[in-house]
Amino acid sequence: MSTTQTSELSFQNPRGYQVQSGLLKEFESGLDPLNPQSSRIPCQVLGYGEISTVFEIQVQGLRDLAFKRMCCFETLDELKPYVDTYLAYNQVLESQVGLHLPPYGYSLFVCESRRPVFYIIQKRLPPTSIGNNALQFLSPQQIISLFRLVLVVVV
Prior knowledge:
Number of helices: 4
CATH topology of the largest domain: Phosphorylase Kinase, domain 1
Distance between the termini: 51 Å
Helix content: 25-40%
Order of helices and strands: EHEEEHEEHH
Structural class: alpha+beta
Number of strands: 6
């Protein structure tokens, strides 16, 4: 069993949670992206995005969290603007828009391959509260209301 050396650059626990950064690095070092269920630390894929995969790490104390893995960046210089935008975006949503975001944090480290890996860590939300899932059970009037709310926030 080989371990991948990593260099931690930045880490923030979600409010109310204690994620051990070493555990996340160990998860990353044993992760087979083509077969995540074979990883040394048990996990479940919660979803796929355009540039990310969202995992539940099935370890005591972490099952209530979603880990959005972003490994598409080649260099830290390429990743830094994304991290800055992510942090500013959350700040704007909370302080200017007035949203109450679920607890969130992040981990940024560099693996042995010298590529940066960025994990967004967030309290898991009920699947029915995610927009595309909610559309399946909302009434037509509720869907219109949801879209109006989204447009007001965006504009």
